[in-house]
Amino acid sequence: MGEDSRQIDQQAVVSERSKRAGSIAKAGGLDQALGSGALTRFQDITLSEAIVLGLLRQGVSRFLCVLGHGSTDLGEVLRAYEGAGLLKTYCVRHETEASHAASALRWVTGEKAAVVTSIGPGALQALAGSIVPASDGLGVWYLLGDETTEDEGPNMQQIPKHEQNLFLRLFGTMGDAYSLHTSEAVGTALRRGLVTVDHPHRGGPFYLLLPMNTQPRLLERFNLDELPFGEPPSLGKAADDAAYESAAAALSKAKRIVVRVGGGARDCGAELLKFLDLVDGMAVLSPLVTGVIEYDHPRNMLVGGSKGSICGNHAMEEADLLVAIGSRFVCQSDCSRTGYPKVKAVININTDVRDVTHYGKTVALLGDAAPTLRRLRAVVKERGAPSSGGSSAWFNDCTAKRKEWEAFKAERYAKPCLYSEAWAEEVLTQPAAIKTATDWARANEAVSFFDAGDVQANGFQVVEDDRLGRTFTETGASYMGFAVSALLATAMASEPFYGLALTGDGSFMMNPQILIDGVCHGSRGCILLLDNRRMAAISGLQEAQYNQAYATWDDVEVDYVQLAGAVKGVLALEGGRSVDELTAALDRARSHDGLSLIHVPVYYGPDPLGGLGAFGRWNVGNWCTDTQALRHKIGL
User: Fold this and answer.
1) 440 and 363 share one domain
2) Where would a tag sit more exposed on the chain, N or C end, judged by fewer CB atoms within 10 A?
3) How far is CA 577 from CA 161, 422, 444, 602, in A?
4) Dihedrals phi, psi of 509, to nearest 5 degrees
5) Looking at the domain assignment, is residue 469 inside a domain?
6) Is 398 helix (H, G, I), strand (E, B) or coil?
7) Which has the closest alpha carbon to 300: 308, 196, 292?
8) 124, 223, 219: which is closest to 180 by C-alpha?
9) What angle do CA 320, 321, 322 make, to 5 degrees?
10) 3-state secondary structure 118-161
């Protein structure tokens, strides 16, 4: 009798859920259903349904799922709401892939998604992938199965230790996390997540841990008004008038101003150009913001850092004043804090109090980049600062270095093929292949994603973006496999786009399941696999430091065209041994209505024309002693 009652109750829950989902869909959304009276505020719903409703209210309607025994109840709710047309689930084959795809969707389109996993290994694989949104400031939801709350004994796949809340502690180290041990706290949990995922300046991952026994718990007469919505307010311009005056005074005394443009300056391109002209500044860009000012602008010194450019690193080395805008000063971006050896003063614009005070000798302007820069420019103009008109000694010096860099690259592009010992024939170099591909992407309005390693490092030295949004280079975590997984976002976006993932053979094999998931969900894009049969970035680093490469390659031959072609729906192509053959392959890939892969053998070896080199310092390996000593000597 009792079993029958529970079964009837469960059927009633499912039936009422379906009716509720239908009412919401017919009304056009939860708020419309509440406003029209189609749905009353007080509902008997499970915790899992409350979470899905709460996320829908926040505009989260895409769920990337690897379901398991730790998420079956949540999965059942998603099934019902997808049936009503309120959301879309994407079942994928790896949690890290799901995380990358959600991050790419937020980065490219601004649209939100949630990653759904089971307990244990799946959740941990999502955690690993979440270092990307944590590093790059991208808001992504994570819904993770967790051990039961009654501690009846070890749950399969929990952390095997007699202690509670271990996953909460673990995930809370990476970012903001909340465990729904108490179902009635769902409103608070969703509000905490909203503030994290939709943070106005630096979003991040939010980990919502869902114990298996609380997911199906019925919340009787739950008030739907407890489900939060809206956006946290932005900080606005820096408010310290004295700091503006101090900054303007420092700018008036400086002779060689470098402006470091970080990810937090994505929205201030127009203000940045006016500021550069006003103060005779030269811009050095983070790889995150190539295109914030167009490549050809005379004040654009391109990328700088331990894998920078001749002109970018020259501007950093010779500047006497640094203006940092929205930068976190990652080790490679500022040569492990040695990138500005002659700087005597720093003006730092940032929305994070720790980042804005990173360097000594700093005038800190705590606020949004664009309005703060606008206010600073007004104060400088009030003081009567003259514009150089592009003819100062500093401008001319940096311009000469920019010409030197362009000539350096042109020399490599003029020799696109070199003899490779690994391939026993002439093959394309990475600079030539990347130049060909990114020029093609720009001409064909394709969005380029770069995977980690040598492809990434050469990539941000090569790209010639004329606007933001053409290139996404995941340098925050430098996660192998990000670019290929990002192609799943082409199928998830409200406004579909064509993606080009530039990857190495090592990065591709980190997440090859995109071949299947991309076909399954209708991705439109191309994987350009640059194959040098090794981890070339690390081999090159080893040879530069120790004159020997070690354990960064093997002799296993892989037919990537045959591998990709084994998946029905994937167009697998050879990219050839010349620029013309690669261009023809890219054109064929673009005409394919789906996912394609182009395999291109590329050069690795001692010939300097095979790469773009490095022009900065880095606190790594046997360089650490000298780099650290210089840092302490500079004392910035």
Assistant:
1) no
2) N
3) 55, 14, 22, 9
4) -75, -10
5) yes
6) helix
7) 292
8) 219
9) 130
10) CCCHHHHHHHHHCHHHHHHCCCEEEEEEECCCCCCCCCCCCCCC
What domain count does the chain have?
3
Give the Cα separation of 61 and 53 in Å (integer): 10
User: 36-56, pLDDT tens digit by residue?
Assistant: 999 999 999 999 999 999 999
pLDDT given at position 1:
37
Residues 29 and 78 in one domain: yes
Number of H helices, E strands in the chain: 25, 22
* Alpha helix positions (H), 254-302: 269-279
The model's pLDDT over 591-635, given as tens digits with 9 standing for 90+, comes to: 999 999 999 999 999 999 999 988 888 899 999 999 999 999 999
Q: For residue 295, with 0-12 CB atoms within 10 Å meaning exposed, 13-18 middle and 19 or more buried, which class applies? A: middle
Beta-carbon contacts of 130 under 8 Å, excluding residues fewer than 6 positions away, are 99, 115, 140, 142, 174, 175, 205, 207
Q: CB neighbours (10 Å) of residue 444? A: 12
Q: How far apart (Å, rounded) are the C-alpha atoms in residues 484 and 514?
A: 7
632 domain-assigned: no
Task: Spell out the residues 6+ positions from residue 229 whose beta carbon is closer than 8 angstroms to its own.
Answer: 31, 57, 58, 194
- Structure tokens that stand for 560 in this block: 């990537």
Same domain for 32 and 163, yes or no, is yes
DSSP state letters, 416-473:
-EEEETTTTEEEE-HHHHHHHHHHHHHHTTPEEEE-SSHHHHHHHHH---SSTTSEEE
Q: How far is CA 424 from CA 322, 390, 414, 432, in A?
A: 48, 50, 21, 19
Contact 14, 77 (CB under 8 A): no
| C-beta separation of 147 from 211 below 8 A | yes
Handedness of CA 79, 81, 85, 91 (dihedral sign): negative
Dihedral angle, C-alpha 219, 221, 225, 227, nearest 10 °: 10
Rg (CA), the chain: 26
Cα 291 → chain centroid:
16
| pLDDT < 50 positions in the chain | 1-8
Q: Which of 599, 478, 465 is nearest to 541 (CA)?
A: 478
Which residue range(s) make up the domain with 389?
Answer: 241-402
* φ/ψ of residue 124, rounded to 5: -70, -35
Calpha distance 368→383 (Å, rounded): 23
Q: CA torsion, points 536, 539, 540, 546, in degrees to nearest 10?
A: 180
Q: How far is CA 636 from CA 304, 319, 429, 466, 534, in A?
A: 18, 13, 39, 33, 38
* The pLDDT value given to residue 389: 63
Spatial strand order of the sheet with 114-117 comes to 88-91, 62-65, 114-117, 140-146, 205-211, 176-179
Residue type for 286, please? S
Last residue of a domain, one of 172, 194, 226: 226
CB atoms under 10 Å from CB of 73, counted, come to 20
**Does residue 621 sit within a domain?**
no
Full 3-state SS string of 482-520: HHHHHCCHHHHCCCCCCEEEEEEHHHHCCCCCHHHHHHH
Residue 619 lies in a domain: no
Q: Are 471 and 438 in contact (CB under 8 A)?
A: yes
Quote the DSSP letter at residue 385.
P
pLDDT at 357: 95
Q: Give, for 248, the enclosing helix (H) or strand (E).
A: helix 241-253
CA–CA separation, 527 vs 515, rounded Å? 9
Q: Which residues contact 319 (CB under 8 A, 6 or more apart)?
A: 256, 257, 258, 282, 340, 342, 343
